[in-house]
Design brief:
- The complex is a heterodimer of chains A (469) and B (165).
- In chain A, 48% of the residues lie in helices and 16% in strands.
- By secondary structure, chain A is of the alpha+beta class.
- Chain A is elongated, with a radius of gyration of 27 Å.
- Chain A starts with 8 loop residues before the first strand and ends with a helix.
- Chain B has two domains: 77 residues, Ubiquitin-like (UB roll) (Roll), CATH 3.10.20; 70 residues, [2Fe-2S]-binding domain (DNA polymerase, domain 1).
- The longest helix of chain B is centred in the C-terminal third of the chain and has 16 residues.
- Chain B contains five helices and five strands.
- Chain B starts with 9 loop residues before the first strand and ends with a helix.
- Classes of the chains: A alpha+beta (469), B alpha+beta (165).
- Chains A and B meet through β1, α2, α7 and α22 of A and β4, α3 and α5 of B.
């Protein structure tokens, strides 16, 4: 049964001060509504018990984010879209960043707020396990003043919280001490956008010499509240990750959760998935540390080197100076994934002449030196070496093929007025010739975009090689 | 004289729709979707699920994509709203509309207004989205006819044309 709007009252006081005064005057009478992504759904279904609503949408006091030395404070009224584009959140709190990206579709991310998600208190909410893993604290505000509570204590039972009838969540505080941790998040649901999770996990871990120093695991949809797996974490402390430990972790985790049967899934399925997710996290944690020692070292040295040195070191991965400067300006990067993401974004936002500079830093496919017109760069030798590796399969293809390729190259250069760019890694000589011939059929604009995409891939491959030292 | 149920709690709410200043006399909790369709007779935005899952009621509010079924109209006070009716000028279609026509991005048409506004919103944020970014940008909009690939093609084409223009 649809609700009748005439049964409801709504006010927009416009300031935090006026809102908490209203809540204090008639405690429990007024329901705060931000972006409406939960409240309006209940309303549409005729299930909204509150008849008086107070709008807190887009309130400046609630939408501010403060980055301080020891912590970041996210205003409770920040939308998922706000969180997704916040640089510090992306770099230091990847679990929050990722959860924001898979909460609802774009329209719901534009309106749904992190504070709303917390207060709505659904055990299935995607962003809440991340807050548990990061040891979040909440600042609650009322006319009586502010108080700070650990988020882990906030949910007291199914849809029950510590929030007093006259209180509002003002901010979420995340300590800035997890940027070196390995992070792992996964949502298991019917589909990615919109669908509510059957089980979701957000976990952090740190190893030293293969031994677990710290793990922090938050799970959604496995208990009446978003759950931190304290017992499982304790059982993992100071252990080395091997197949026995994975089995133990599964067992302890399954014993620790309290899943139910509901329309989305069954308790049995949820327990099996939760156990597997915890095991997968530990497995990834162990391999993350095994292969990434050098990556960390190269990246951390680069993060701290001078602007000139850093630009010179990263330039051979792409060839465009504007790209190199853009990357240097976006330091520090916590890990390889953040670096690769930033590279794609920086590359896409360059001008045509920046792109041309990168294209011209490559040798013709089938040759070994860059096209003569390009400027001589100090880092040229690295780029030449990489080009040789990338074009390895082409170099061995034989004289006939070389001639065909040279012809096609010349035709391409006549037609598009630049050299042919292809990400040659893993491609055979005949494949490349075929690609070149196909691309000769492209119009100007399509071909420019394809060349840029190939260069993007080349840069990704080279960045990975560079990080391995 | 007692106030009729119809009139109870009604207030004047003003906002801009497709560049024109409008004032409606409505209850605060009426949904923006209903106000657009019934009060202003802008029936481009459709009601699909009525709970923010399908995107067929999408409009732009102060430059961001929203599900108008989830916006109480009082929250639109002072806002700048763009609906599908506001995209084309008298003579010319919006580049995204044109690309949808050419690439078969519209079939039954129910999802189309929301889909196009989601695409416009995406292209405002990203000049040259990747295929993945296009899929993600449209992930809140459901279509039962096209199988989506024509829609993704249309958005990619619109992005190309915009960069060339």
């Amino acid at each position: 049964m649809r609700s009748d709007p005439s049964d409801y009252e709504m006010v927009v006081p416009g300031s935090l001060h006026a809102i908490v005064a209203l809540l204090a005057n008639q405690p429990g009478q007024w329901l705060p509504i931000a972006g409406g992504t939960d409240v309006m759904v209940q309303y549409a279904a005729g299930k909204l018990a509150a008849r008086k609503l107070v709008s807190i949408w887009n309130l400046p006091e609630l939408r501010r984010t403060e980055v301080m030395d020891g912590e970041i404070r996210l205003g409770a009224g920040c939308t998922y879209a706000d969180l997704r584009r916040h640089e510090t959140v992306e770099l230091e709190f990847p679990l929050v960043h990722r959860a924001a990206g898979w909460t609802g579709g774009i329209a719901n991310q534009n309106r749904g707020t992190i504070g709303g998600n917390i207060v709505n208190a659904s055990p299935a909410a995607d962003s809440l396990p991340a807050l548990l893993a990061y040891d979040a604290e909440l600042i609650l505000v009322s006319v009586r003043g502010e108080r700070r509570v650990p988020y882990a204590h906030f949910h007291t039972g199914y849809k029950k919280t510590l929030l007093a009838p006259d209180e509002l969540v003002r901010a979420i505080c995340l300590p800035r001490r997890f940027s070196e941790y390995f992070s792992y998040a996964r949502k298991v649901g019917a589909r990615n956008a919109q669908a509510i999770s059957k089980v979701c996990i957000a976990a952090l871990g740190r190893l030293a010499d293969g031994v677990i120093q710290d793990v922090r695991i938050g799970l959604g949809s496995v208990a009446p509240v978003p759950l931190r797996l304290m017992e499982t974490e304790r059982a993992m402390q100071r252990k080395t990750i091997d197949s026995d430990l994975l089995l133990l972790a599964k067992k302890v985790a399954i014993a620790e959760i309290r899943p139910i049967d509901d329309i989305r899934s069954t308790a049995n399925y949820r327990a099996a998935v939760a156990g597997n997710l915890v095991a997968e996290f530990l497995d990834r944690l162990s391999s993350s540390s095994a292969g990434s020692g050098e990556v960390k070292e190269v990246l951390s040295r680069w993060n701290h080197s001078s602007v000139e040195e850093a630009a010179a070191a990263i330039l051979p991965s792409c060839g465009s100076k504007a790209w190199a400067q853009g990357m240097v300006a976006r330091r520090p990067f916590p890990d390889e994934a953040a670096l690769l993401r930033a590279s794609d974004e920086t590359w896409r936002n360059l001008t045509l002449s920046n792109w041309m500079e990168a294209f011209n830093s490559h040798p013709r496919i089938g040759e070994s030196r860059p096209v003569p017109s390009s400027s001589t760069q100090p880092s040229l030798s690295q780029s030449v070496e990489w080009s040789a590796e990338e074009q390895h399969d082409v170099a061995d293809a034989g004289a006939d093929f070389e001639r065909l390729l040279a012809d096609a190259n010349r035709e391409y250069e006549r037609r598009f007025n630049r050299i042919f760019i292809v990400c040659a890694t893993g491609k055979s000589a005949p494949e490349i010739l075929q690609i070149l011939r196909d691309r000769l059929k492209n119009d100007e604009e399509t071909e420019l975009q394809e060349a840029a995409e190939e260069q993007r891939q080349i840069t990704q491959v080279r960045l990975r090689k560079w990080l391995k030292g | 004289m007692s106030e009729s149920r119809e009139e109870r709690g009604k207030v004047d709410i003003s906002f801009t729709v497709n560049g024109e200043r409008k004032t409606v006399h409505a209850q605060a909790m009426e949904r923006l979707l209903d106000v657009l369709r019934r009060h202003l007779e802008l029936t481009g935005a459709k009601e699909g699920c009525g709970e923010g899952e399908c995107g067929s009621c999408s409009v732009l509010m102060d430059g961001i994509l929203v599900n108008s079924c989830l916006v109480p109209v009082l929250q639109a006070q002072g806002a700048n709203i763009v609906t599908i009716e506001g995209l084309a000028t008298e003579e010319t279609l919006h580049v995204v509309q044109e690309a949808f026509l050419e690439y078969g991005g519209a079939q039954c048409g129910i999802c189309t207004p929301g889909m196009i506004l989601a695409a416009v919103h995406l292209l405002d944020k990203k000049r040259q989205p990747t295929r993945e970014e296009i899929s993600e940008g449209l992930s809140g909009n459901l279509c039962r006819c096209t199988g989506y690939s024509q829609i993704v093609e249309a958005v990619a084409e619109a992005a190309r044309r915009r960069t060339m223009a």
